[in-house]
Specification:
Elements lengths: L30 E5 L7 E7 L2 E12 L12 E8 L14 H14 L11 E11 L4 H15 L9 E8 L2 E4 L3 H6 L2 E7 L6 E4 L2 E2 L3 H30 L2
Parallel strand pairs: 4-5
Antiparallel strand pairs: 1-2, 2-3, 3-5, 6-7, 6-8, 8-9, 8-10
Helix pairs in contact: 1-2, 2-4
The structure holds cytidine-5'-diphosphate.
The site of cytidine-5'-diphosphate has 12 residues, from α2 and α3.
């Protein structure tokens, strides 16, 4: 689609009060989730959210041989978030960097509270999140896809974690920031939660918000999570039935 930009919105990419991609403030980008897309992994998922394209593979629970991290009474949940070199505008140097190490850590911490790790002593569950194409909000989209892949692997969980961000762009509190809103906007609040109980397992905040704006962003992110949660369930039902 070709968007004609008038002189008045060249700097911001938006008309006053409207988002650059035409979405309402509480509207998600188009979302697609599919479970069980890889035959060699124990569980897998593919997710598209706007221009994000993310593939997740889960292996395990399986025996853990690394004594340094092995837990005698439970499994460990290891997550690796990785961006493909071709996933962003400037070629991403292959391998881990500060950002991917941080996202891997918060992903593991966001997912761990729902997994019955105590059922699998001395084991590991490995989650590989591959960002094939990045378009803003990849940490949340990666967590959402990882949950579906864990469910697809049959890993016992008390809920399916879902993740979404809200923030402030062009002076407005908006849901599910696009890459442009993420980079040029004023603030970003990614969350992950248990949809059944509303418990929050990830809460980050980048940028400046007043307490009222923060509350509004949080409410909006929770609203977004609830919508995405329905799509996660549909992906599992499409693969396994009710
Ligand atoms: O992806 P997320 O919003 O969770 O994380 P971020 O660190 O706030 O990055 C925002 C966006 O910047 C990503 O989604 C990518 O689209 C982009 N990005 C990039 O272009 N090059 C990188 N090396 C890292 C991120």
């Amino acid at each position: 689609m070709i968007t004609i930009i008038t002189n008045t919105n060249i700097n911001t990419g938006t008309e006053a009060g409207e988002r650059a991609d035409g979405r309402a403030s509480n509207e998600l980008r188009p979302l697609k989730i599919e479970a069980g897309v890889l035959k060699r992994a124990d569980g897998s998922a593919y997710l598209e959210l706007g221009g994000n394209k993310i593939l997740v593979a889960v292996y395990g629970p399986r025996e853990l041989h690394v004594r340094r991290i092995m837990q005698p009474n439970r499994a460990v949940l290891r997550c690796r978030y990785n961006m493909a070199p071709f996933s962003v505008d400037d070629r991403k140097r292959p391998g881990p960097d500060r950002r991917s190490v941080e996202i891997s850590k918060i992903t593991s911490e966001a997912l761990t509270p729902v997994v019955f790790l105590e059922k699998f002593p001395r084991s590991t569950i490995d989650v590989f999140i591959e960002i094939l194409q990045a378009d803003g909000g990849t940490r949340c989209a990666g967590i959402t896809a990882a949950s579906v892949a864990l469910a697809d692997a049959g890993v016992p969980m008390k809920d399916m974690i879902v993740s979404c961000a809200a923030g402030k762009a062009n002076e407005k509190i908006v849901l599910d920031l696009s890459e442009w809103e993420d980079k040029e906007g004023e603030a970003d609040v990614p969350i992950a939660m248990m949809p059944r109980t509303g418990e929050i397992t990830l809460l980050q905040s980048d940028g400046n918000l007043t307490p009222e704006e923060f509350e509004k962003a949080l409410d909006l992110a929770v609203e977004g999570c609830k919508k995405i949660s329905e799509e996660q369930k549909k992906a599992i039902i499409a693969r396994y039935g009710d």
